Amino acid sequence: MTDATSQMITTADGKPLKAALAASLAVRRRRAFLLVAPLFLFILISFIVPIGQMLFQSFYNDTFSKNAPALVEWFSTHPEGSEIDESAYAALAADLAQMKKDRTAGEAGTRINYDVSGTRSLFTSTARGADKFKPPFKEAILQVEKKWDNPNVWRAMRSASSPFTLDFYLAANDLTRDESGKIVPVAEGQAIYKKLMGRTLMLSLEITALCLLLGFPIAFLLSSLPMRKAMLLMILVLLPFWTSLLVRTTAWMVLLQSQGVVNDLLVWLGLVRDDHRIQMMYNETGTIVAMTHILLPFTILPLYSVMKTIPPSYVRAARSLGATSWTAFRRVYLPQTLPGIGAGGLLVFILAMGYYITPALVGGADGQMISNMIAMHMQKTLNWSLAAALAAELLAIVLIFFWIYDKLVGIDKMKLG
Amino acid sequence: MTTATTDEGFVVFDHVQKSYDGETLVVKDLNLSIGKGEFLTMLGPSGSGKTTCLMMLAGFETATHGEIRLGGTNINHLPPHKRGIGMVFQNYALFPHMTVAENLSFPLEVRGMAKSEREAKVTRALDMVQMGKFANRRPAQMSGGQQQRIALARALVFDPELVLMDEPLGALDKQLREHMQFEIKALHERLGITVVYVTHDQGEALTMSDRVAVFNDGRIQQLAPPDELYERPKNSFVAQFIGENNKLPGTVESLEDETCTVRLQTGELISATPVNIRHVGQDTLVSIRPERIEFKPEMMPPGAHMIDAEVLEVIYMGDIFRTRMRVAGIDDFVMKSRNTLGQTRLHPGEKLKIGWHPQDARALDPM
């Protein structure tokens, strides 16, 4: 027996122990997997796949390339800088004719329109008579639409001829390509995304800070009260969760608008002149106030669950060792609440970064966030690829903050409740 | 502010009362004077008010009435951090986010001590509890006993004159607890500090203290050195709480200065030492320590009182035999006899005569 242990440990009837163990655990493992399988499938279908799809769309757009095979062929044989000659116009004519037949001119034109505005109508109007073009195509087409000799249109078509493109990421960062294909910033008046992203970041940080500032004392109160009273207060904290988000946001509109409750009260008290009512809605202030209120429970809950586990004897020990109440708080209590502060702050920050309804309703022009822009591109301009690129950037920023948090505090220390 | 009188103790509780809800008193009229360098233990069951007293002394609770003085100064309204009292908590309360050295350095830092001096003191305090190697550990990486030593070192590192300990050994296993008792006692003697120690473990109280204050129902039931507490309990609560005691209920038949006669419920007359007997005819509980009972005639002390007994059960406990007997109609009368060479082994059902010296039978108030 002692010899056997030095080589391979076996069970009583001589099977290798490892194999026997694996066999005996296999059933249990299979059963455990079956238990999580539905959730796993659900997450895969409803979460991983859509996000993958979204990320894919941000650098893949084939609406032009699949509808203009002849042009794609021409661009691949003629390198950048080639003269736009008769053969190019022949390919264009062939594609436009096909587009007319398939009714896809608008679709293809939309893709080029992202880069050079006004081109969608160029495609649709030219395609209308495309089946009647006769060689020489260059003259025939230019006769119908003079704009086709604009090099920008051809440059845009060249870049769209490959379904894989980083143009949408350029656009999301207020960048574009000039005539020579060099990456340059867009014109002064058109740069919006970077500013908006910056504002989204700032607003989210402000809201996170406000939530922590307001939530910390409440969580502390909750954790130090006797159970029965704490439960009552906890219901008050959770109450907003049971009310529709829309109702809560609308309530803030009623309160904060210039003819609203708060302004009426201030006027009545004589603190504000009737013709100088404070503008608290449809600007940044409105967004900050309403979102802080809505996201506050997300800081209180993790903070509370952390504070609940800190015995009062720590602060007492610090006090008995000679620390003032402020020092005891700063050096002993606060560091121990860090996991809660981190979890609550990160949660609120991530939620705020992607918040949509509240800024849309109360934000006005100044209080809009990047999610509102994404929604606009999804619903109004139908530039899904740009929306996807913006969303991907948002995701990247959130992941970067997550990473920073992990480096500073450690993700394993996070406590959500 | 009252000025110190010459014969006043280092710590004085002067008519202190404490109520949390305004309806019941947790501490009822506490008067206690603790001398400098004394090791005083507050002993009592949970809810007896002993921890509340400690918290008032540390400054975490305020007295509802009365005065607490430290070194002659009223400290009722002095915040905890200005009292300069070291404290050891039941769960150690070591700061989990600091290393051992940082924990010990904390009280010195808040006192604005220079770094070099701090380091020297921390090293000295760690060596004092034989934990020098652990300076860079975190509390979570240490065993309960090690954490306990660190907590002790932290309470002593800033050289307080008074150290409070709130059931510091409660979470340790028996062997470690006994070992730590000796260490704490040795530290107390070496440093000459005053210690107020709270526990519900009577063994701990007896082995460590100069004096023990037995708490019950918000009052000190008896304040005495351990031997006096054990051998001359003043009332039945103390007699019951400290050690094991046999109690025989009866009525006082006659009363003199040094002795009294008690008629037991079964009619026997026994003589006992009156402790808090006020008049003849009063109900009483006569208490006798199990180890003061003899059953061999040759070992009986002179003048011993003899009574009939029937053995019900014999438990072998290694160093002693614990014999449960029926005496005067009571079924749980216990006798402890040492397991010496040639000791007679008793058997259940055996009938015999047992006896004790009347001095060891103390007539107390009925509970």
TrEMBL record, chain A:
Domain of life of the native organism: Bacteria
Subcellular location(s) per record: Cell membrane
PROSITE patterns for the chain: ABC_TM1
InterPro entries: MetI-like, MetI-like_sf
Keywords attached to this entry: Cell membrane, Membrane, Transmembrane, Transmembrane helix, Transport
Domain ABC transmembrane type-1: 197-405
Membrane association type: Multi-pass membrane protein
Gene Ontology cellular component annotations, sorted alphabetically: plasma membrane
Membrane spanning stretches: 32-56, 201-223, 230-247, 284-304, 341-362, 382-405
One of the protein's GO biological processes: transmembrane transport
SUPFAM superfamilies: MetI-like (SSF161098)
Gene3D superfamilies for the chain: MetI-like (1.10.3720.10)
Pfam families xrefs: BPD_transp_1
Annotated family: Belongs to the binding-protein-dependent transport system permease family. CysTW subfamily.
PANTHER family named in the record: ABC TRANSPORTER PERMEASE PROTEIN, INNER MEMBRANE ABC TRANSPORTER PERMEASE PROTEIN YDCU-RELATED-RELATED
Name of the featured protein: ABC transporter permease
Species per Swiss-Prot/TrEMBL record: Paenirhodobacter ferrireducens
TrEMBL record, chain B:
GO molecular function, one term: ATP binding
EC number(s) per entry: 7.6.2.11
GO cellular component terms, A-Z: ATP-binding cassette (ABC) transporter complex
Alphabetical list of InterPro entries matching this protein: AAA+_ATPase (IPR003593), ABC_SmlMolc_Importer (IPR050093), ABC_transporter-like_ATP-bd (IPR003439), ABC_transporter-like_CS (IPR017871), Mo/tungstate-bd_C_term_dom (IPR008995), P-loop_NTPase (IPR027417), PotA-like (IPR005893), Transp-assoc_OB_typ2 (IPR013611)
All residue ranges annotated as the ABC transporter domain in the record: 11-242
Keywords for this protein: ATP-binding, Cell membrane, Membrane, Nucleotide-binding, Translocase, Transport
One Pfam family here: TOBE_2
Catalytic activity: ATP + H2O + polyamine-[polyamine-binding protein]Side 1 = ADP + phosphate + polyamineSide 2 + [polyamine-binding protein]Side 1
Coiled-coil regions listed: none
SUBUNIT field: The complex is composed of two ATP-binding proteins (PotA), two transmembrane proteins (PotB and PotC) and a solute-binding protein (PotD).
Described purpose of this protein according to its UniProt entry: Part of the ABC transporter complex PotABCD involved in spermidine/putrescine import. Responsible for energy coupling to the transport system.
Family the UniProt entry places it in: Belongs to the ABC transporter superfamily. Spermidine/putrescine importer (TC 3.A.1.11.1) family.
Protein name: Spermidine/putrescine import ATP-binding protein PotA
Organism the protein comes from: Paenirhodobacter ferrireducens
Lineage: Bacteria, Pseudomonadati, Pseudomonadota, Alphaproteobacteria, Rhodobacterales
